[in-house]
């Protein structure tokens, strides 16, 4: 031996760790528990560089907590339903499960080689019937509480994937997955009533501040979009014809501007527009609605686009003034926000002003902000100011006028304070095959009948393959007649199963709970275990999940709490977003041809070197540019660390007393600092400190007592333990060489001797006129007087002063003396 060989370490240790069951938690309450979780992978192909980075970070936390003596739960599973498997199955005339489980096996092998410290006995897959049985069970509990319901409404439709999408899956008007522009389609779909939880989702973020990235919290806050204002109801003027619509309610954040409303706008695509329009204007509206359909919400709200719209022929009456205001239909008002209708105040809202200019509608300022009249400038005024042209509100400030206006409206019975949310209910049904079947049976007599709990899971049929799965706009499950046609559980009559499957984000909204007892058969998780582990103490994953997965998981946790099944109200106490792995400053992609193959890197440099490189590249939140890092440099460092252990092992023993004092101090400082740095996720700095310690240890070996010095052994052991967080193979090998039984993962973080942290001396700097003239080695607790005396007596200082008189001496013990000559 004697030569560092990552290949032989990688061949040796996994079996030992397996045998010793090193990474399974005791789960017996003998130690304090901590739960660390990486966002579980999707089984597309083998692991890539992104996995290697994310899992390296999560593993540092997990291994650190284990070294601190916690009982650590660190599980892994697969988010294994979803479109790619289905598309691959169509292409290969296969069943999606074949592709899925083959990929999972490949990834599992790679993860084992990558030596992530997980308890493999807890592995789960969301596409396992043993798992989705409980996804269905939870769906039923939501359904019983009215939190899962079906409604007909215009939904986002991806023409390529031939399925509906949740609002959260539409990014800049396009399908999050394939980039196709999303259209609207009216369909009967299942929803989760996440809007019932909007307030709690927002309020409970307070407890996450400082533990979740600010950016993620800001994104969630914005997505929930709480907006305080009022509902104001206007009576529609009957223009002699039969009245279809009696009233029009708007949501406004600016009830103070009511006197400045000069017209109304309803969303052209809302049913409301059809209810309002008079016969005379019906055709113009219907033509306009065709135009609007093609636009995304982003385009519709763009301030760049010229304003378009049609008059409905109706007027609404301002409850405060009796003024008749024309009602228009336009696309810049969205059908599914607020009430889908607005009172337009062109003087103080730019979009309303643009619209007023385009159609020659009046502009009336009601707030004097000191700026010029918006009717003249074309710029709406939005700042603070004093109310004008506003009857009883005149003279009030904007912030006083808002509640005053609401009070007046409430007295008139025509308005009230209202809090509006941007958040919509979560559309969860999908017209695809490879997902959790919705456990509902539709009976012509009994309506929606849930499948009884003892008949769960509703399994996917296994006789659909290849072409039968191709998207048709309705779920492929509809074609499986023997599966679809069932007896109604209530009346026994002929009935049909629901043929939609659930959004895969449903599967991932509760998997962290399943990990506490993945084999439990009496419920989704063992109630006796779940509160021992939840909430997750550290969650690690990409920022791309800021809204979708993380919001949904928070929602599920709150509902499951409300069901009385869980104490926690938040799933993840702390969140770490790792950066991306780039190559040449750009994300790796096929089209750029800058992909780096993980397997190849592992073959070339070894697992430890790749892991260390990921961690050493910078703080975990930053991107890693593979073109800028040096896995071969990492490999060299690992070999250098490893040789310390070898040298110690082959040196003759000495008595434990003594040892190189400077090295001992450095070792204890390194361990001490590493703790604080690890808590702050400054993993890269810990690695840098280890490098320093390895170099210092080597110097001592090469001089003085050599490897037999007990300070050298102490340093080598500390290196092995701290290094085990980043480079488990090298560390385990060092630990064995140093004469300890496996595993170094359970060695315990080295104890720090506080006496060794006290510095023997510190360098004080002496400046004259701002120039450094001397450096003095002084005791850290030197007094000001002593330091002044020492500085003035110093030869270098005497020389620099050259007899000049001194005006003042400023002393900051123990580090600085500033001499100001007269
Ligand atoms: C009158 C008004 C006067 C308004 C004014 C603003 C300024 P947030 O903060 O996003 O909640 N609005 C309401 N529903 C809308 C919809 N469906 N589509 C487009 N715009 C809509 O914005 C609330 C404001 O956005 C509301 O207050 C309304 O315009 C508009 F000087 O009412 B406001
Ligand atoms: Zn029935």
* Spatial separation of the terminal alpha carbons: 69 Å
User: Helicity level, as a percent range?
Assistant: 25-40%
Shape: globular
Q: Let me know the largest β-sheet.
A: 7 strands, mixed
- Low-confidence stretches at least 5 residues in length (pLDDT < 50)? none
Ligand roster: ligand ANZ, zinc ion
Please count the beta strands (DSSP E, at least 2 residues each).
Answer: 34
Mean pLDDT: 93
What proportion of the residues form beta strands (DSSP E)?
A: 15-25%
Rg from alpha-carbon coordinates: 34 Å
Q: Structural class, from secondary structure content?
A: alpha+beta
Count of separate DSSP helical elements: 27
Task: Note down, in words, how this protein is organized.
A motif ('KMSKS' region) lies at residues 587-591. Residues 660-783 form the Methionyl/Valyl/Leucyl/Isoleucyl-tRNA synthetase anticodon-binding domain. A motif ('HIGH' region) lies at residues 41-51. Residues 40-179 form the Methionyl/Leucyl tRNA synthetase domain. It is found in: Cytoplasm. With 822 residues, this protein is of the alpha+beta class. 36% of the residues lie in helices and 19% in strands. The strands form ten sheets. Strands 10, 11, 12, 13, 14, 15 and 18 form a seven-stranded mixed beta sheet that branches. The protein is globular. The chain starts with 5 loop residues before the first helix and ends with a strand. The mean pLDDT is 93. Ligand ANZ binds next to strand 11 and strand 15.
């Amino acid at each position: 031996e004697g030569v560092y060989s990552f290949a032989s370490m990688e061949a040796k240790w996994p079996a030992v760790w397996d045998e010793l069951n090193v990474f399974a938690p005791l789960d017996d309450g003998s130690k304090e528990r901590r739960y660390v979780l990486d966002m579980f992978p999707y089984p597309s192909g083998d692991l890539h560089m992104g996995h290697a980075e994310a899992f390296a970070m999560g593993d540092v936390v997990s291994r650190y907590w284990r070294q601190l003596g916690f009982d650590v739960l660190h599980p892994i599973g697969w988010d294994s339903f979803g479109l790619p498997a289905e598309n691959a199955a169509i292409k290969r005339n296969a069943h999606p499960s074949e592709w899925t489980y083959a990929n999972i096996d490949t990834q599992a092998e790679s993860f084992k080689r990558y030596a992530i410290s997980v308890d493999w006995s807890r592995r789960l897959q969301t596409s396992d019937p043993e798992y989705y049985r409980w996804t269905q069970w939870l769906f039923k509990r939501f359904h019983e509480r009215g939190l899962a319901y079906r409604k007909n409404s215009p939904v986002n439709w991806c023409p390529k994937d031939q399925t509906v999408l949740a609002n959260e899956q539409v990014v800049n008007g396009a399908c999050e997955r394939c980039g196709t522009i999303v259209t609207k389609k009216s369909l009967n779909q299942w929803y989760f009533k996440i809007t019932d939880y909007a307030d709690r989702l927002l309020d409970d973020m307070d407890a996450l501040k400082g533990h979740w990235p600010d950016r993620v919290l800001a994104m969630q806050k914005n997505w929930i979009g709480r907006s305080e204002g009022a509902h104001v109801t206007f009576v529609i003027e009957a223009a002699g014809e039969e009245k279809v619509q009696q009233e029009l309610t708007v949501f406004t954040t600016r009830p103070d501007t009511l006197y400045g409303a000069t017209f109304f706008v309803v969303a052209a695509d809302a049913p409301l527009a059809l209810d309002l329009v008079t016969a005379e204007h019906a055709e113009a509206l219907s033509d306009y609605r065709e135009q609007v359909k093609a636009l995304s919400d982003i385009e519709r709200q763009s301030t760049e686009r010229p304003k378009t719209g049609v008059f409905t022929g109706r007027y609404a009456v301002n409850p405060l003034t009796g003024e008749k205001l024309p009602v228009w239909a336009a696309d810049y008002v969205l059908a599914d926000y607020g009430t889908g209708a607005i009172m337009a105040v062109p003087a103080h809202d730019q979009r309303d002003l643009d619209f007023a200019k385009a159609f020659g509608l009046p502009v009336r300022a009601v707030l004097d902000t000191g700026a010029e009249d918006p009717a003249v400038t074309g710029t709406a005024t939005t700042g603070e100011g004093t109310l004008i042209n506003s009857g009883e509100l005149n003279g009030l400030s904007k912030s006083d006028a808002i509640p005053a206006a609401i009070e007046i409206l409430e007295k008139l019975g025509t308005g009230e304070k209202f809090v509006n949310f941007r958040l919509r209910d979560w559309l969860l049904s999908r017209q695809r095959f490879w997902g959790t079947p919705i456990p509902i049976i539709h009976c012509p007599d009994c309506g929606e009948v849930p499948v009884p709990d003892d008949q769960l899971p509703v399994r996917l049929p296994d006789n659909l393959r290849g072409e039968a799965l191709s998207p048709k706009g309705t779920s492929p499950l509809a074609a499986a007649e023997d599966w679809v046609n069932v007896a109604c559980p209530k009346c026994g009559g002929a009935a049909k199963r629901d043929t939609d499957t659930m959004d895969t984000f449903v599967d991932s909204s509760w998997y962290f709970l399943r990990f506490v007892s993945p084999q439990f058969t009496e419920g989704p998780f063992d109630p006796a275990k779940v509160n021992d582990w939840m909430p997750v103490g550290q969650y690690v994953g990409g920022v791309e999940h800021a809204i979708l997965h993380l919001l949904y998981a928070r929602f599920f946790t709150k509902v499951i709490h409300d069901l009385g099944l869980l104490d926690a109200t938040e799933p993840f106490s702390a969140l770490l977003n790792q950066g991306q792995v780039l190559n040449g400053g750009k994300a790796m992609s096929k089209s750029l041809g800058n992909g780096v193959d993980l397997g190849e890197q592992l073959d070339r440099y070894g697992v430890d070197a790749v892991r260390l490189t990921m961690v050493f590249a910078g703080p975990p939140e930053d991107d890693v540019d593979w073109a800028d890092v040096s896995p071969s440099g990492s490999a060299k460092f690992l070999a250098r660390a490893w040789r310390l252990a070898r040298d110690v092992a082959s040196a003759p023993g000495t008595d434990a007393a003594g040892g190189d004092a400077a090295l001992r101090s450095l070792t204890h400082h390194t361990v001490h600092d590493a703790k604080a740095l690890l808590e702050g996720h400054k993993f890269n700095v810990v690695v840098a400190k280890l490098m320093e310690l390895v170099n210092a240890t080597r110097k001592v070996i090469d001089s003085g007592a050599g490897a037999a010095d007990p300070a050298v052994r102490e340093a080598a052991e500390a290196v092995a333990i701290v290094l085990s967080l980043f480079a488990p193979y090298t560390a385990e090998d060092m630990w064995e060489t140093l004469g300890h039984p496996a595993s170094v993962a359970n060695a315990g973080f080295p104890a720090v001797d506080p006496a060794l942290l006290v510095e023997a001396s510190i360098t004080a700097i002496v400046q004259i006129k701002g120039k450094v003239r001397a450096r003095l080695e002084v005791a850290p607790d030197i007094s000001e007087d002593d330091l002044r005396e020492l500085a003035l007596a110093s030869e270098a200082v005497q020389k620099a002063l050259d007899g000049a008189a001194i005006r003042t001496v400023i002393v900051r013990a123990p580090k600085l003396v500033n001499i100001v000559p007269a």
